[in-house]
Write a structure and sequence with these properties.
- It is a single chain.
- By secondary structure, this protein is mainly alpha-helical.
- It has one domain.
- α4 packs antiparallel against α5.
- The longest helix is centred in the C-terminal third of the chain and has 20 residues.
- The relative contact order is 0.10.
């Protein structure tokens, strides 16, 4: 959990926060209308990717979780999670693309 407060200026800077804001509003509207289906959203995966990029301790814990899954025989789930982990860590090491 981050101890840093998120301001409205942060939403303007971060596409992930902007997407989260729009998706949260759409989901809240659907819940208010008691809709039969909620809008599809990738908020969770974006949130995890951002956290993997910015929180090394979380990245280590996530890697341990992935290895535990793979040792337990959950290879397909472990491979998908490992692919996402590697892609997010690769972005950290190479820096922002210009």
């Amino acid at each position: 959990m981050t101890k840093q407060k998120i301001t409205s200026a942060d939403f303007a800077k971060s596409p992930a926060l902007t997407a989260h804001s729009f998706n949260s509003k759409a989901i809240a509207r659907a819940l208010d209308k008691q809709a039969a289906a909620l809008p599809c959203s990738k908020v969770f995966s974006l949130t995890v990717t951002e956290r993997l990029r910015h929180d090394p301790a979380f990245a280590r814990e996530r890697f341990d979780e992935i290895m535990t899954l793979m040792r337990a025989g959950e290879m397909s789930v472990g491979r998908r999670m490992l692919r996402a982990w590697v892609n997010s860590r690769r972005a950290v090491r190479s820096g922002p693309r210009t």
